Amino acid sequence: MANRMTILVLGVLATFGALMGVLADILSVWSSHAGQMATAFSVSLEDIAGFYVDKPRWTYVAGNYIGLYFIPLHVLGFFLVFQALKPASLFWSRVFLALALYLTPIGVGMHGSLAFVGDILRSEDAELIQGMRDYWQPWAYSLVIGYAVVSVLILGMILSGKSFYPRWTALVSPIGLVFFSAIAIAILPENLNGLKAFLAITGLNLPLAVLFLVTTLILVKRDEFSLSL
């Protein structure tokens, strides 16, 4: 039988790690200047370049380190999500866990590169920016594609009605929150560029914080399962 205290500790650490990821996003990228990010999946250099206009350097250096040291806590949350998905399909929940664990260091590494990205974009050195684009953009797109695949897996198992998640939690699943944030970004007026930027740049970590919190609250109420792989 699952140990409620173990679930709580893992859940609190995972949610804290995701919220620190949100803080890292804000420090690394957020600016009241208009960016071109239409969704959290908009990760081309052109999409984010506007955020670095007049952005204090210390902010994205600090965000670099916060992301590096706290986003790894996501793995604890993914382990709990796996427990909640297992009743729907042991095979697909293991696929989810494998992909999530595989993507975590990719995301940590990308976050750790944002200080360099900021410096290079602000240098306005066209040759250097083009060189960075060649390796950084495929890296960024591989992360958001993987995030989308993992999110669709979660959504599918929630909607099956066989996991521990009630079907309504599909609305606050990662892909659901990315969808709603994209709608908000599209309809909010330009005088709310700061809010639009917040929704875009925190659009991967904030949904995970919600997911880990909801998962923890669901699992602590159940005692008919054991924490296992």
UniProtKB/TrEMBL annotation:
Transmembrane feature ranges: 66-85, 97-118, 138-159, 171-189, 195-220
Full protein name: Uncharacterized protein
Biological source species: Thalassovita aquimarina
UniProt keyword list: Membrane, Transmembrane, Transmembrane helix
Keyword Membrane: yes
